[in-house]
Amino acid sequence: MPLKSIRVLDLTRLLPGPYCTMLLADFGAEVVKVEDPKIGDYARHYDPKVDEDSAIFHSLNRNKKSVCLDLKLQKGKIDFLGMVEKADVVVESFRPGVMKRLGIDYEKLKRINPGLVYCAITGYGQTGPYATEPGHDINYLSYAGLLNLMGEKDGKPAVPATQIADIGGGALPAAVGILLALLEREKSGKGQFIDISMMDGVISWLQTVLPNYLSTNLSPKRGEQMLDGSRACYGVYETKDARWLSVGALEPKFWKMFCHGIGKSDFISLLEAPLHEQHRLKYEIQTIIYQKTLSEWLEVFSETEACVSPVLTFEEMVENPQVIAREMIQTVSHSTLGTMKQIGIPIKLSETPGEIRTEAPRLGEHTEKFQKTLKNCSTKANKGVNG
Protein backbone atom coordinates (compact mmCIF):
# COMPACT_ATOMS: atom_id res chain seq x y z
CA MET A 1 0.00 0.00 0.00
CA PRO A 2 1.29 3.49 -0.82
CA LEU A 3 1.63 4.64 2.82
CA LYS A 4 2.62 1.34 4.44
CA SER A 5 5.94 2.71 5.75
CA ILE A 6 4.39 5.83 7.32
CA ARG A 7 3.62 5.99 11.05
CA VAL A 8 1.11 8.63 12.18
CA LEU A 9 0.52 9.65 15.79
CA ASP A 10 -3.05 10.90 15.95
CA LEU A 11 -3.98 13.07 18.95
CA THR A 12 -7.25 14.25 17.40
CA ARG A 13 -10.83 13.55 18.44
CA LEU A 14 -14.33 13.66 17.00
CA LEU A 15 -14.50 14.33 13.22
CA PRO A 16 -11.93 16.49 11.33
CA GLY A 17 -8.69 14.89 12.53
CA PRO A 18 -9.98 11.31 12.61
CA TYR A 19 -11.36 11.68 9.06
CA CYS A 20 -7.96 12.92 7.88
CA THR A 21 -6.07 10.06 9.52
CA MET A 22 -8.69 7.55 8.32
CA LEU A 23 -7.79 8.46 4.75
CA LEU A 24 -4.13 7.85 5.54
CA ALA A 25 -4.88 4.58 7.34
CA ASP A 26 -7.04 3.31 4.48
CA PHE A 27 -3.98 3.49 2.26
CA GLY A 28 -1.64 1.68 4.60
CA ALA A 29 -0.32 4.23 7.10
CA GLU A 30 0.09 2.91 10.64
CA VAL A 31 -2.14 5.33 12.51
CA VAL A 32 -1.81 5.24 16.29
CA LYS A 33 -4.52 7.07 18.20
CA VAL A 34 -3.01 8.58 21.33
CA GLU A 35 -5.97 8.79 23.71
CA ASP A 36 -6.67 9.95 27.22
CA PRO A 37 -6.79 6.85 29.49
CA LYS A 38 -10.10 7.81 31.11
CA ILE A 39 -12.23 9.26 28.32
CA GLY A 40 -10.46 8.58 25.04
CA ASP A 41 -11.88 10.04 21.86
CA TYR A 42 -15.18 11.71 22.80
CA ALA A 43 -16.78 10.18 19.71
CA ARG A 44 -16.61 6.75 21.39
CA HIS A 45 -19.50 7.76 23.65
CA TYR A 46 -22.05 8.90 21.08
CA ASP A 47 -25.25 6.99 20.36
CA PRO A 48 -26.10 4.68 18.79
CA LYS A 49 -23.48 2.26 20.11
CA VAL A 50 -22.11 -0.60 18.03
CA ASP A 51 -20.48 -3.06 20.41
CA GLU A 52 -18.62 -0.87 22.97
CA ASP A 53 -18.27 2.29 20.91
CA SER A 54 -20.42 4.51 18.71
CA ALA A 55 -21.21 3.83 15.08
CA ILE A 56 -19.42 7.03 14.02
CA PHE A 57 -16.30 6.04 15.98
CA HIS A 58 -16.18 2.66 14.24
CA SER A 59 -16.49 4.37 10.88
CA LEU A 60 -13.82 7.04 11.40
CA ASN A 61 -11.25 4.91 13.22
CA ARG A 62 -11.00 1.72 11.22
CA ASN A 63 -7.48 0.55 10.37
CA LYS A 64 -6.08 2.35 13.45
CA LYS A 65 -4.47 1.41 16.76
CA SER A 66 -5.13 2.92 20.19
CA VAL A 67 -2.56 3.77 22.84
CA CYS A 68 -3.54 5.43 26.12
CA LEU A 69 -1.18 8.10 27.46
CA ASP A 70 -1.82 10.81 30.02
CA LEU A 71 0.04 13.69 28.40
CA LYS A 72 -0.32 15.78 31.54
CA LEU A 73 1.97 13.39 33.43
CA GLN A 74 5.74 13.12 33.07
CA LYS A 75 5.54 9.41 32.19
CA GLY A 76 3.01 10.09 29.47
CA LYS A 77 5.14 12.84 27.95
CA ILE A 78 8.26 10.66 27.95
CA ASP A 79 6.40 7.80 26.30
CA PHE A 80 4.94 10.14 23.71
CA LEU A 81 8.35 11.63 22.88
CA GLY A 82 9.70 8.11 22.52
CA MET A 83 6.97 7.40 20.00
CA VAL A 84 7.72 10.65 18.18
CA GLU A 85 11.30 9.52 17.58
CA LYS A 86 10.03 6.76 15.30
CA ALA A 87 7.05 8.59 13.84
CA ASP A 88 6.65 10.30 10.49
CA VAL A 89 3.58 12.41 11.22
CA VAL A 90 1.85 13.94 14.23
CA VAL A 91 -1.71 15.22 13.82
CA GLU A 92 -3.43 17.24 16.56
CA SER A 93 -6.53 19.43 16.80
CA PHE A 94 -6.07 21.29 20.07
CA ARG A 95 -6.47 25.03 20.21
CA PRO A 96 -3.20 26.92 19.59
CA GLY A 97 -1.00 26.92 22.68
CA VAL A 98 -2.27 23.70 24.24
CA MET A 99 0.58 21.52 22.99
CA LYS A 100 3.12 24.11 24.13
CA ARG A 101 1.60 24.16 27.61
CA LEU A 102 1.88 20.38 27.67
CA GLY A 103 5.55 20.71 26.72
CA ILE A 104 5.23 18.70 23.50
CA ASP A 105 4.78 21.37 20.83
CA TYR A 106 6.30 21.24 17.34
CA GLU A 107 9.45 23.16 18.27
CA LYS A 108 10.26 20.52 20.89
CA LEU A 109 9.24 17.55 18.77
CA LYS A 110 11.33 18.57 15.76
CA ARG A 111 14.46 18.65 17.94
CA ILE A 112 13.83 14.98 18.68
CA ASN A 113 12.82 14.15 15.10
CA PRO A 114 13.84 16.74 12.46
CA GLY A 115 12.01 14.80 9.77
CA LEU A 116 8.67 14.99 11.58
CA VAL A 117 5.66 16.27 9.67
CA TYR A 118 3.41 18.02 12.19
CA CYS A 119 -0.17 18.94 11.25
CA ALA A 120 -2.39 21.12 13.44
CA ILE A 121 -6.08 21.29 12.49
CA THR A 122 -7.90 24.18 14.17
CA GLY A 123 -10.95 26.33 13.55
CA TYR A 124 -9.16 29.56 12.74
CA GLY A 125 -5.50 28.61 12.34
CA GLN A 126 -2.44 29.39 14.41
CA THR A 127 -2.46 33.15 13.77
CA GLY A 128 -4.95 36.02 13.80
CA PRO A 129 -7.29 37.48 16.43
CA TYR A 130 -9.59 34.41 16.43
CA ALA A 131 -6.80 31.83 16.75
CA THR A 132 -7.63 30.78 20.30
CA GLU A 133 -11.41 31.14 20.02
CA PRO A 134 -13.61 28.04 20.27
CA GLY A 135 -15.88 27.08 17.41
CA HIS A 136 -17.79 24.42 15.52
CA ASP A 137 -18.67 23.79 11.89
CA ILE A 138 -21.53 26.30 11.90
CA ASN A 139 -19.22 29.06 13.21
CA TYR A 140 -16.59 28.51 10.51
CA LEU A 141 -19.28 28.52 7.80
CA SER A 142 -20.61 31.76 9.27
CA TYR A 143 -17.29 33.60 9.27
CA ALA A 144 -16.47 32.32 5.78
CA GLY A 145 -19.63 33.90 4.39
CA LEU A 146 -21.00 30.58 3.14
CA LEU A 147 -23.84 30.14 5.64
CA ASN A 148 -25.25 33.51 4.62
CA LEU A 149 -25.75 32.17 1.07
CA MET A 150 -27.40 28.89 2.06
CA GLY A 151 -31.19 28.53 2.11
CA GLU A 152 -34.23 30.05 0.46
CA LYS A 153 -34.21 33.67 -0.73
CA ASP A 154 -36.66 34.97 1.86
CA GLY A 155 -35.87 32.52 4.64
CA LYS A 156 -33.14 32.20 7.21
CA PRO A 157 -29.74 30.62 6.43
CA ALA A 158 -30.01 26.83 6.18
CA VAL A 159 -27.63 24.73 8.27
CA PRO A 160 -26.19 21.89 6.14
CA ALA A 161 -26.84 18.30 7.19
CA THR A 162 -23.17 17.35 7.04
CA GLN A 163 -20.05 19.08 8.28
CA ILE A 164 -18.61 21.10 5.40
CA ALA A 165 -15.93 22.91 7.41
CA ASP A 166 -14.84 19.88 9.42
CA ILE A 167 -14.32 17.61 6.43
CA GLY A 168 -14.01 19.84 3.37
CA GLY A 169 -12.29 22.73 5.14
CA GLY A 170 -10.20 20.76 7.63
CA ALA A 171 -9.74 17.04 7.10
CA LEU A 172 -9.17 17.04 3.35
CA PRO A 173 -6.69 19.96 3.24
CA ALA A 174 -4.89 18.37 6.19
CA ALA A 175 -4.50 15.07 4.34
CA VAL A 176 -3.24 16.87 1.24
CA GLY A 177 -0.86 18.97 3.33
CA ILE A 178 0.57 15.90 5.04
CA LEU A 179 1.16 14.14 1.74
CA LEU A 180 2.80 17.27 0.27
CA ALA A 181 5.09 17.57 3.29
CA LEU A 182 6.03 13.89 3.09
CA LEU A 183 6.83 14.33 -0.60
CA GLU A 184 9.03 17.34 0.17
CA ARG A 185 10.76 15.37 2.93
CA GLU A 186 11.84 12.83 0.32
CA LYS A 187 13.92 15.60 -1.26
CA SER A 188 15.07 17.65 1.72
CA GLY A 189 14.98 15.18 4.60
CA LYS A 190 13.22 17.81 6.70
CA GLY A 191 9.76 17.81 8.18
CA GLN A 192 7.59 20.88 8.58
CA PHE A 193 4.60 22.41 10.37
CA ILE A 194 1.22 22.31 8.60
CA ASP A 195 -1.24 24.95 9.78
CA ILE A 196 -4.80 24.01 8.74
CA SER A 197 -7.67 26.39 9.46
CA MET A 198 -11.18 25.08 8.85
CA MET A 199 -12.40 28.61 8.17
CA ASP A 200 -9.64 29.07 5.58
CA GLY A 201 -10.66 25.80 3.95
CA VAL A 202 -14.29 26.88 3.62
CA ILE A 203 -13.29 30.20 2.07
CA SER A 204 -11.25 28.28 -0.49
CA TRP A 205 -14.42 26.39 -1.45
CA LEU A 206 -16.22 29.57 -2.57
CA GLN A 207 -14.87 29.39 -6.10
CA THR A 208 -18.23 29.86 -7.84
CA VAL A 209 -19.27 32.99 -5.92
CA LEU A 210 -16.36 34.74 -4.21
CA PRO A 211 -14.27 35.57 -7.32
CA ASN A 212 -17.27 37.46 -8.72
CA TYR A 213 -17.47 39.61 -5.60
CA LEU A 214 -13.71 40.20 -5.55
CA SER A 215 -13.91 41.42 -9.15
CA THR A 216 -17.03 43.59 -8.91
CA ASN A 217 -17.58 44.36 -5.20
CA LEU A 218 -21.20 43.32 -5.72
CA SER A 219 -22.33 41.16 -2.80
CA PRO A 220 -24.08 37.92 -3.74
CA LYS A 221 -27.53 37.38 -2.26
CA ARG A 222 -29.10 34.23 -0.97
CA GLY A 223 -31.44 32.67 -3.51
CA GLU A 224 -30.03 34.61 -6.47
CA GLN A 225 -26.99 32.54 -7.48
CA MET A 226 -26.63 30.21 -10.43
CA LEU A 227 -26.24 27.04 -8.37
CA ASP A 228 -28.25 27.77 -5.22
CA GLY A 229 -31.68 26.75 -6.48
CA SER A 230 -32.80 30.18 -7.67
CA ARG A 231 -32.93 29.14 -11.35
CA ALA A 232 -35.63 26.88 -12.73
CA CYS A 233 -33.08 24.62 -14.41
CA TYR A 234 -31.26 23.85 -11.17
CA GLY A 235 -33.47 22.96 -8.27
CA VAL A 236 -35.67 20.48 -6.45
CA TYR A 237 -39.35 19.85 -7.16
CA GLU A 238 -41.96 17.95 -5.16
CA THR A 239 -43.79 15.06 -6.81
CA LYS A 240 -47.37 13.85 -6.41
CA ASP A 241 -46.36 11.26 -3.79
CA ALA A 242 -44.51 13.80 -1.60
CA ARG A 243 -41.10 12.78 -2.92
CA TRP A 244 -38.52 15.04 -4.51
CA LEU A 245 -36.98 15.28 -7.96
CA SER A 246 -33.70 17.12 -8.49
CA VAL A 247 -33.04 18.88 -11.78
CA GLY A 248 -29.58 19.97 -12.89
CA ALA A 249 -30.32 20.95 -16.49
CA LEU A 250 -27.85 23.84 -16.64
CA GLU A 251 -26.67 23.40 -20.21
CA PRO A 252 -29.02 24.17 -23.14
CA LYS A 253 -29.01 20.56 -24.39
CA PHE A 254 -30.10 19.23 -20.98
CA TRP A 255 -32.66 22.02 -20.47
CA LYS A 256 -34.16 21.30 -23.88
CA MET A 257 -34.63 17.62 -23.03
CA PHE A 258 -36.10 18.50 -19.63
CA CYS A 259 -38.61 20.91 -21.17
CA HIS A 260 -39.64 18.28 -23.71
CA GLY A 261 -40.04 15.77 -20.86
CA ILE A 262 -42.47 17.98 -18.94
CA GLY A 263 -44.33 18.93 -22.13
CA LYS A 264 -43.33 22.60 -22.13
CA SER A 265 -41.21 23.22 -25.21
CA ASP A 266 -42.04 26.93 -24.93
CA PHE A 267 -39.81 27.08 -21.84
CA ILE A 268 -36.67 26.19 -23.83
CA SER A 269 -35.89 29.80 -24.75
CA LEU A 270 -36.19 30.90 -21.11
CA LEU A 271 -33.09 29.11 -19.74
CA GLU A 272 -31.30 32.42 -19.09
CA ALA A 273 -34.41 34.45 -18.25
CA PRO A 274 -34.18 37.22 -15.60
CA LEU A 275 -34.63 36.29 -11.96
CA HIS A 276 -38.29 37.35 -11.73
CA GLU A 277 -39.04 35.17 -14.75
CA GLN A 278 -37.14 32.27 -13.16
CA HIS A 279 -39.47 32.47 -10.17
CA ARG A 280 -42.50 32.17 -12.46
CA LEU A 281 -40.89 29.26 -14.30
CA LYS A 282 -40.19 27.45 -11.05
CA TYR A 283 -43.81 27.86 -9.98
CA GLU A 284 -45.12 26.51 -13.27
CA ILE A 285 -42.66 23.62 -13.32
CA GLN A 286 -43.59 22.72 -9.75
CA THR A 287 -47.26 22.64 -10.76
CA ILE A 288 -46.42 20.21 -13.56
CA ILE A 289 -44.09 17.99 -11.51
CA TYR A 290 -46.77 17.69 -8.83
CA GLN A 291 -49.02 15.88 -11.33
CA LYS A 292 -46.98 12.65 -11.35
CA THR A 293 -45.28 10.42 -8.78
CA LEU A 294 -41.53 10.16 -8.48
CA SER A 295 -41.44 6.76 -10.20
CA GLU A 296 -43.57 8.10 -13.04
CA TRP A 297 -41.22 11.02 -13.62
CA LEU A 298 -38.20 8.73 -13.49
CA GLU A 299 -39.84 6.64 -16.19
CA VAL A 300 -40.40 9.77 -18.30
CA PHE A 301 -36.72 10.71 -18.07
CA SER A 302 -35.29 7.17 -18.07
CA GLU A 303 -34.05 7.37 -21.66
CA THR A 304 -33.39 11.12 -21.65
CA GLU A 305 -30.19 13.00 -20.81
CA ALA A 306 -31.73 15.81 -18.81
CA CYS A 307 -29.75 15.59 -15.54
CA VAL A 308 -32.83 14.57 -13.56
CA SER A 309 -32.43 12.44 -10.43
CA PRO A 310 -34.48 11.17 -7.51
CA VAL A 311 -33.70 12.59 -4.08
CA LEU A 312 -32.84 9.34 -2.32
CA THR A 313 -33.21 8.36 1.30
CA PHE A 314 -30.37 6.46 2.98
CA GLU A 315 -32.39 3.26 2.64
CA GLU A 316 -32.50 3.77 -1.13
CA MET A 317 -28.95 5.07 -1.46
CA VAL A 318 -27.30 2.02 0.08
CA GLU A 319 -29.17 -0.22 -2.41
CA ASN A 320 -28.49 2.01 -5.41
CA PRO A 321 -26.68 0.09 -8.19
CA GLN A 322 -24.11 2.86 -8.71
CA VAL A 323 -23.26 2.95 -5.01
CA ILE A 324 -22.95 -0.84 -4.99
CA ALA A 325 -20.79 -0.86 -8.12
CA ARG A 326 -18.45 1.71 -6.59
CA GLU A 327 -18.28 -0.25 -3.30
CA MET A 328 -19.14 2.84 -1.29
CA ILE A 329 -20.96 0.73 1.29
CA GLN A 330 -18.90 -2.28 2.35
CA THR A 331 -19.59 -5.20 4.65
CA VAL A 332 -16.49 -5.95 6.73
CA SER A 333 -15.66 -8.50 9.39
CA HIS A 334 -15.78 -7.63 13.09
CA SER A 335 -14.37 -9.65 15.98
CA THR A 336 -17.51 -9.53 18.15
CA LEU A 337 -20.30 -8.54 15.77
CA GLY A 338 -19.38 -10.93 12.99
CA THR A 339 -19.83 -8.29 10.28
CA MET A 340 -20.70 -4.63 10.08
CA LYS A 341 -21.33 -2.17 7.27
CA GLN A 342 -18.90 0.68 6.65
CA ILE A 343 -18.67 3.67 4.34
CA GLY A 344 -16.31 2.75 1.50
CA ILE A 345 -13.17 4.44 0.21
CA PRO A 346 -13.78 7.35 -2.21
CA ILE A 347 -10.25 7.44 -3.68
CA LYS A 348 -9.81 4.67 -6.24
CA LEU A 349 -6.20 3.82 -7.11
CA SER A 350 -5.66 1.30 -9.91
CA GLU A 351 -2.45 -0.27 -8.57
CA THR A 352 -2.44 0.34 -4.81
CA PRO A 353 -6.07 0.68 -3.72
CA GLY A 354 -7.14 1.49 -0.21
CA GLU A 355 -8.61 -1.22 1.99
CA ILE A 356 -10.58 -1.60 5.22
CA ARG A 357 -8.26 -4.05 6.96
CA THR A 358 -9.05 -3.84 10.67
CA GLU A 359 -11.90 -2.67 12.87
CA ALA A 360 -11.69 0.42 15.08
CA PRO A 361 -9.56 -0.24 18.18
CA ARG A 362 -10.85 -0.56 21.70
CA LEU A 363 -9.63 2.19 24.05
CA GLY A 364 -5.98 1.49 24.82
CA GLU A 365 -6.00 -1.82 22.94
CA HIS A 366 -2.40 -1.41 21.79
CA THR A 367 -0.95 0.38 24.82
CA GLU A 368 0.88 -2.64 26.22
CA LYS A 369 2.48 -3.45 22.87
CA PHE A 370 3.82 0.07 22.44
CA GLN A 371 4.98 0.33 26.04
CA LYS A 372 7.16 -2.73 25.49
CA THR A 373 8.84 -0.99 22.58
CA LEU A 374 9.38 2.11 24.71
CA LYS A 375 11.08 0.41 27.65
CA ASN A 376 14.44 1.35 26.21
CA CYS A 377 13.30 4.84 25.32
CA SER A 378 16.31 6.88 24.18
CA THR A 379 18.05 9.51 26.28
CA LYS A 380 16.91 12.09 23.72
CA ALA A 381 13.25 11.43 24.52
CA ASN A 382 13.83 11.42 28.27
CA LYS A 383 15.69 14.71 28.10
CA GLY A 384 13.09 16.14 25.74
CA VAL A 385 10.54 16.71 28.47
CA ASN A 386 12.84 19.12 30.26
CA GLY A 387 14.73 20.33 27.22
From TrEMBL:
It holds the Pfam family CoA_transf_3. Keywords: Transferase. InterPro entries: CoA-transferase_III, CoA-Trfase_fam_III, CoA-Trfase_III_dom3_sf, CoA-Trfase_III_dom_1_sf. Transmembrane segments: none annotated. One of its GO terms (molecular function) is transferase activity. This is CaiB/BaiF CoA transferase family protein. The lineage of its organism: Bacteria, Bacillati, Bacillota, Bacilli, Bacillales.
